[in-house]
Amino acid sequence: MTKYNLTVFFILLLLSLVIIFFGQNQIILLFKHYLSETLRPFEVVFSKASNWLFFWQSAVFNIKNIKESNTRLISENLDFYNKLAKLSQLEEENSLLREKLNLSQKAINTRLASVIGRDFQNNRSFLIDKGTNDGLAIGMVVISEGETLIGRIADAGYNISKVQTMLDTQSRIAAITATSKISGLVRGLGSDIIFDLIVKNKKPETGELVISSGTDGIWPRGFTIGKIKEVKSQDNQVFNTADIELLAKLQDFDSVFVILNSQ
Known about the structure:
Strand content: 25-35%
Helix content: 25-40%
Strand order of the largest sheet: 1-2-5-4-3-12
CATH class of the largest domain: Mainly Beta
CATH architecture of the largest domain: Beta Barrel
């Protein structure tokens, strides 16, 4: 052991003995008291600084955890919405397949087509993704789910066709009320339709369904058109008329059925 190390050892030993034997001495106690009082403000400062550092360390750590949680939740939500969209699409496809099966059981041969363009201004026409290559031809009737009439093929290309809806002013459908069996003619007015040529002494009930009668030889019999909204009768008119509420929202559907033939 070197002389320096030996000196340090004896100094520390001496300090230890002084503390052991004179720890309860009044002078030592007084010195400890003043030393403690002198260092107390520093202890408070160091304690607050330590708490402050601990707080911000925890805050930074929590922010990191929150960001990671948010990223994970966003990813899970996107996955959830994607699954919902796929489920909704599958439900729609299943509904269309059930509808087609129901039509097939009624000996109605149809072609399913998707809407690829609309006349949003007045809903008088729209485009579908089927044409002459798929067996479509001008004049074929177009329906939606629920066997509801939509319109007819006005123009047919190789793989695209234009459908003229019942709202068009050129549209005429021989019709009859489902319950009271009152005959008339459904006409397009451009933005809505009316049930016209109702015999003067007959008035259909409000809410009664109007269906195609098939007597015009153009539109197949028994397809739903709408329901009576309001009957109008004027003394100076030969026939009564009635406003019709369409059951098919022409701006909402994405797919339609084109009737190729029916019995």
